[in-house]
Structure formats: C-alpha cells, structure tokens
Amino acid sequence: MIDPTSPIPRWQQAHAILVDRIRAGVYPPGSRVPSAVALSAELGISTPTAQKALRQLREDGLTYTVPGFGSFVTDRTPT
C-alpha cells in the first residue's frame, strides 16, 4: 500500500489510493470515506498525513465534509 521508501510523499500515496477506490466504486457517490484515524491505522501513516490526503480529496472536488459526520463522496465522476 504505502511505500515508505518511495520519493512520493506518503500523503500523495494515500490520496492516490483513495482516488483509485472512488473510481473503482469502493466508495460510491454519497458514501462515507474513512476518517483520518481509520486511514492512519489502515495505511500505517500518521493522522496528520491522512488528514492531508483527505483535504486534497476535498480540494479536488471528490468529497465534501459534513461537520460531525465525516467526509462523503460527491456525485461528480472522477476522471
């Protein structure tokens, strides 16, 4: 999953994994994506690193956040 020896920053690797999962329908539109804490445990990265990956998904327009509920996949089809 995350390659600690890669020159690609870990947050970018995590972001790429999440984008792939959205494209593959693992997280379909309207579904909740894992929290930063859950991602950090799953991928073996720090919580701030996971937060940065999730923030980039929002900036890409692939997710939106509902305070107190989490982040959800938008209806936009990723390219």
Automatic annotation (TrEMBL):
Domain HTH gntR-type: 8-76
UniProt-listed InterPro entries: Bact_HTH_transcr_reg (IPR050679), Tscrpt_reg_HTH_GntR (IPR000524), WH-like_DNA-bd_sf (IPR036388), WH_DNA-bd_sf (IPR036390)
Listed Pfam families: GntR
Record GO terms (molecular function): DNA binding
Record's keyword terms, sorted: DNA-binding, Transcription, Transcription regulation
Superkingdom classification of source: Bacteria
Protein name: DNA-binding GntR family transcriptional regulator
